[in-house]
Amino acid sequence: MVKSKKKILDSYTIKGTKKTVKVGDCILMRAHDPDKPPYVARLEKIEEGSRNNVRVRVRWYYRPEDSIGGRRQFHGSKELFLSDHYDEQSAETIEGKCTVHTFRNYTKLDSVGNDDYFCRFEYKAATGSFSPDRVAVYCKCEMPYNPDDLMVQCDACKDWFHPECLKMSLKAVKKLENYFCPDCAPENGEKRSRKTRTRDSLSPEDVEVQMDRKRHKQ
Ligand SMILES: [Zn+2]
Ligand SMILES: [Zn+2]
């Protein structure tokens, strides 16, 4: 019996470059279709087989459009889901390195580079379910936060609002120093009691249902 000689490597130098990727890095992998953006994955294992043939084990990140539910309005343009889908690939398909930030860190970035992404959900590829299965919602429209959209925070209740949902222009919002939402704003000198919010979170799958309901109401 011939025992195949496999060597576990800590890092791999991307072909034609001096860039090195390590286990644990987030990497971009060439899509089969050259018109498509590269796939994003987390590098789990690097293995060198016979004839210097390097294979990598990866855990895929899914783009919202690749998920069963598809892209929703609250998904950011750089949003990814960490999936439970693993694969083995030739290391030659690795194009480069990227950074997948936590949602919190992503919202704090001064500028978003080409290779900056964020992830706030894990995704089960077989069932299309998300974890966490609840997501905080904001504004009158009760939507999860899309970091691509500008929002304004109420100084009293600390909820966040879309300028368009308040019928305010972006220009007006940017000039504001303090903002009080309609529920918190003192009206005729009298402070209205704030409505109790009945829903502070929704499941990611529920959000579309919620959006549809809103749409019909209008
Ligand atoms: Zn809104
Ligand atoms: Zn408020």
Secondary structure topology:
Layout: E1 7-9, E2 11-13, E3 20-22, E4 26-29, E5 39-48, E6 54-62, E7 79-90, E8 94-102, H1 103-107, E9 116-124, E10 129-131, E11 135-136, E12 152-153, E13 160-161, H2 170-175, E14 186-187, E15 190-191, E16 201-202, H3 206-217
Parallel strand pairs: 7-9, 8-9
Antiparallel strand pairs: 1-5, 2-3, 4-5, 4-8, 5-6, 6-7, 9-10, 11-16, 12-13, 14-15
The structure holds zinc ion (2 copies).
One zinc ion (ZN) binds next to loops.
GO molecular function, one term: chromatin binding
Keywords: Metal-binding, Zinc, Zinc-finger
Pfam families: BAH, PHD
List keywords for this structure.
elongated; 3 helices; 11% helix; binds zinc ion; mainly beta; 218 residues; 2 domains; Herpes Virus-1; two-stranded antiparallel sheet; SH3 type barrels
Description:
- The chain is mainly β and 218 residues long.
- The chain has 2 domains: 7-131, SH3 type barrels, CATH 2.30.30; 135-217, Zinc/RING finger domain, C3HC4 (zinc finger) (Herpes Virus-1).
- Helices cover 11% and strands 35% of the residues.
- The chain has helices at 103-107, 170-175, 206-217; strands at 7-9, 11-13, 20-22, 26-29, 39-48, 54-62, 79-90, 94-102, 116-124, 129-131, 135-136, 152-153, 160-161, 186-187, 190-191, 201-202.
- The strands form 5 sheets. It has a 6-stranded mixed barrel with strand order 4-5-6-7-9-8. Strands 2-3 form a two-stranded antiparallel ribbon. It has a two-stranded antiparallel sheet with strand order 11-16.
- Strand 8, helix 1 (103-107) and strand 9 form a beta-alpha-beta unit.
- The longest helix is centred in the last third of the chain and has 12 residues, at 206-217.
- The N and C termini lie far apart (72 Å).
- The model is unreliable at 188-196 (pLDDT under 50).
- Bound molecules: zinc ion (ZN) (2 copies).
- One zinc ion binds at residues 154, 156-157, 159, 180-181, 183-184.
